[in-house]
Amino acid sequence: HVFHSIHGTELIDWERQKIYMMRLFAVVIFAVLALSANGKTALRKESEETHDRRDLLQLSNNQTACDVIRDDLPGECACIEPGPWSIVVECLKTFDGEYFNDTIGMKVVVDPCDPLGSKMAVEVVEKKHEIDYKIAGVRAGEQKNFPIPGLSIIVPALGHLGLDTAVYIGGNPDLLTLKVGLNACVVVHDKNVCASTIPGVNKILPWWILKGTYSFGNVCRGNSTTAIM
Questions:
Q1: pLDDT of residue 11
Q2: From the CA atom positions of the chain, what is the Rg in Å?
Q3: If you average pLDDT over every residue of the chain, what do you get?
Q4: Are 153 and 163 in contact (CB under 8 A)?
Q5: Cα 159 from Cα 187, distance rounded (Å)
Q6: Structural contact between residues 202 and 211, judged by C-beta atoms closer than 8 angstroms
């Protein structure tokens, strides 16, 4: 009887140990699964962030600042990007009209991503009269006509029409309106008369290098990400 009593006690202890071991094993398995799940979540989040960053860079790489404006450029112009923050448009335009026969070179520098506000600079060159006229620091919100010293068009009954560089920049990188080109105006009886209303002259002027609203937002954000990385 004593033997049976001792043997029964050992069985009970063994059963208890087995239950304890099973519970301990279950706790360990649960902890391992929890760590694995947290690890996968962290890896997934990191992967998503990396993917989003790559998408942004891919977008900026696929469409450069020149690509944004290229379709609107006249055939006499070409766009280059000397750096990530600006574009340069260079043009050589030959005018062959009844009242104006000349070749004008123009260089337009646009910085759509400037943190102080988008800006533009223009340079006009004419070899015949040795003209090299520069306009710098035109900021977003400005619209101006800059008379080009020494350049004019002679129109019968109107006289000399001074050749102007017409510039407008407005908005922000997401919706930036750019308007830059050549125009000619004259004051007649206290009224400003410009090329678009003068027969014959309106066939060649105004001549626009850029005239439209463009979105540089993705390009600017992409370049900022590239600079940070």
A1: 54
A2: 36
A3: 81
A4: yes
A5: 10
A6: no
Sequence-ordered alpha helix ranges (H) in 90-175: none
Q: What pLDDT, in 10s, does the model give residues 138-152?
A: 999 999 999 999 999
Report the alpha-carbon angle 67-55-62, nearest 5. Answer: 20
- Establish whether the linkage from the previous residue to 84 is cis, with ω within 30° of 0: no
Q: Looking at 18-127, which runs of residues are DSSP E strands?
A: 77-83, 86-96, 101-111, 119-126
- Asked whether 88 and 79 are in contact (CB, 8 A), the reply is yes
Task: For residue range 212-224, list pLDDT tens digits in order.
Answer: 999 999 888 876 5
pLDDT (tens digit per residue) in 128-184:
899 999 999 899 999 999 999 999 998 888 888 999 999 999 999 999 999 999 999
Residues ≥6 apart with Cβ < 8 Å to 62:
none
Q: Count Cβ atoms below 10 Å from residue 25 Cβ, excluding itself.
A: 10
Q: How far apart are CA 80 and CA 119, in angstroms?
A: 17
- d(CA 71, CA 30) in angstroms, rounded, equals 61
Tokens of 90: 């260079």
Token pair, residue 123, equals: 């340079």
